[in-house]
Design goal:
Radius of gyration: 25 Å
Oligomer: single chain
Region (Disordered): 35-69
Number of domains: 1
Strand content: under 5%
Order of helices and strands: HH
Protein name: Reverse transcriptase
Biased composition (Basic and acidic residues): 35-48
Biased composition (Basic residues): 54-69
Length: 69
């Protein structure tokens, strides 16, 4: 009886570990998807905004103030 219990316990551990990995991956993907939605819905990120205007807006934010001309 003990040998069978140990074997089943090993299978249970394997299944729990697999389930935990799947949950962690699923949670990570959900978080990434949520961040993507936030990034996509920021002001100035609409499809109607020309690409050059979005790039210039990004450049203004990344260039330090003392380096601007």
């Amino acid at each position: 009886m003990e040998a069978a219990w140990i074997k089943n316990y090993g299978d249970d551990l394997y299944l729990k570990r697999t389930y935990t990995c799947i949950r962690v991956l699923d949670r990570g993907l959900a978080h990434a998807s949520k961040n993507d939605e936030v990034r996509r819905n920021r002001p100035g990120r609409e499809e109607t905004t020309p690409t050059i205007q979005r790039r210039l807006r990004h450049r203004r934010r990344t260039v330090p103030r003392n380096m601007r001309q």
